[in-house]
Amino acid sequence: MTLKACKKEEKMDRGFQKKFKFEGSINVLTQMMVDPAATEKRGGAKNLPLRRGEILDVIQFTNQEQILCRNSQRRYGYVPRAVMLPL
């Protein structure tokens, strides 16, 4: 990874921590897949856009309805638990 890419990732991680008031290091707990039968949704202010069959990194299990995830483009957001499948 180049120095420029590394700095860009660090900046995105700091932005995530500020936006979601997340303290501590960002650790991936597990990976889950978006249900292929789910409808695709556009992202919102704090919601992650959903694509069928996409594999997401789980950062935090926030509550019974949502999970805090990161997608392959290193974007962070909440995803409904109802559309997630374990790998």
From TrEMBL:
SUPFAM superfamilies assigned to the protein according to its UniProt record, in alphabetical order: SH3-domain
A Pfam family that the UniProt record links to this protein: hSH3
A GO biological-process term: T cell receptor signaling pathway
Keyword Magnesium included in the entry's annotation: no
Record's keyword annotation contains RNA-binding: no
Gene Ontology CC entries for this record: plasma membrane
Classification via InterPro entries: FYB1/2-like (IPR043443), hSH3 (IPR029294), SH3-like_dom_sf (IPR036028)
All copies of domain Helically-extended SH3, residue ranges: 16-85
Keywords (A to Z) from UniProt: Phosphoprotein
Top-level division of the source organism's lineage: Eukaryota
Protein name: PRAM protein
Organism ancestry: Eukaryota, Metazoa, Chordata, Craniata, Vertebrata
Gene from which this protein is expressed: Pram1
